[in-house]
Amino acid sequence: MMSDNFTHPSSVIDPGAVIGKGTKVWHFSHVMGDSEIGENCNLGQNVFIAAGVKIGNNVKIQNNVSVYTGVVLEDDVFLGPSMVFTNVINPRSHVNRRGQYQRTLVKRGATVGANATIVCGIMLGEYAFVGAGAVVTRDVPAYGLVYGNPARLEGWMCACGEPLHINGEETSEQIVCASCGWAYERVSDSEIICVKQGKA
Q1: What is the spatial distance between Cα 128 and Cα 55, in angstroms, rounded to a whole number?
Q2: Which of 3, 30, 137, 195 has the highest CB neighbour number within 10 Å of its CB?
Q3: 175-176 vs 183-188, strand pairing mode
């Protein structure tokens, strides 16, 4: 663990955990050994980071979130308060499935809203946006906006977090975010791509 970060005295950092420069770990949190947290991250109150978890740079984890073994968070991810990851698809108290943890990948820039649940074994694409309270059971495409139970693709979000207004038909016409200038093209009804980056 590096010394140029902040850990509140009430939190526990186990030996072997690696915490990057500028990262803050707030009240009553627990970071287990063999986990890696990047630079300039913020872990709120009562956050748990399990062994083997990999977290990128500039990740914001709000209060009461547990990041279990098998979860990978890339750079710039935002996890809202009390959201939930799972890591076993069929848990039983009397059956040991510690060797069956599934990998959940949250790609760069993705946002997960408060009280959402992410079922293990899926991927949230770059800058995906999961609405508050959603239950996500399958992959979310890059820039996809999902919400509901089960969560469904309901629209698209710019990298800056503003909604993109895309009609229901396939088009090669560029959609430009009025807020930041990033431009996108629709590939299909379930995929868009960024073709020009702005100031997001």
Answers
A1: 17
A2: 30
A3: antiparallel
